[in-house]
Amino acid sequence: MFTPIICGTCEQGKYAPAGRDVYACTWCGGRLADRDFVLDPEERLVCRDGVMHTQVITGLYEVLPTHGVQSAYVQATLMRALLSQNVFTGTEQVNAANRLKFEEALPERGPWILDLTELRTLVIAMRWRKSAAGFPDPRRVYDDAVRGLSSEAVDSAP
Question: In the chain, how many domains are there?
């Protein structure tokens, strides 16, 4: 559900983008920065048809990056995964990756507020990068080890 943001000064105009992280009222010209909008934890700031709206999203996940370079690393991973064209299985994941690859979506200091599709997209991209770099997926190593043990036990049985 999208709700337009009405200007608090004139109470008639709606906010529209006026620059990087700056929005202006279409009626009185009053300006607000991105950080000045008061949003509930389940709301996002969204631009639709040149007008700023709040969008209520349920099922959000909060990710707290542990390092300052985490954001740049994840965004570079998303861009590389998009360029390879065989990492993501559906348009929903491709759209989520395109949204997340920009600085505004994943601030460097966090927190990152992600829906389930965005979270899954990040996990897929990170697993792809680790496998492309030669790091095995921990689940695959565990499955191979269990499979190896069971086959050895079967082969050595009298």
Answer: 2
Q: What is the pLDDT of residues 50-72, one digit of tens each?
A: 777 776 766 777 777 776 557 88
* pLDDT tens figures, 20-40: 778 888 899 888 887 787 777
**Is this prediction's pTM over 0.70?**
no
48 and 65 housed in the same domain: no
Higher pLDDT among residues 93 and 147, named by residue = 93
**Among candidates 89, 79, 104, which has minimal Cα distance to 113?**
104
| Integer angstrom CA distances of residue 91 from 95, 112, 117 | 6, 22, 11
The verdict on residue 148 lying in a domain is no
Q: Which amino acid is at 127?
A: R
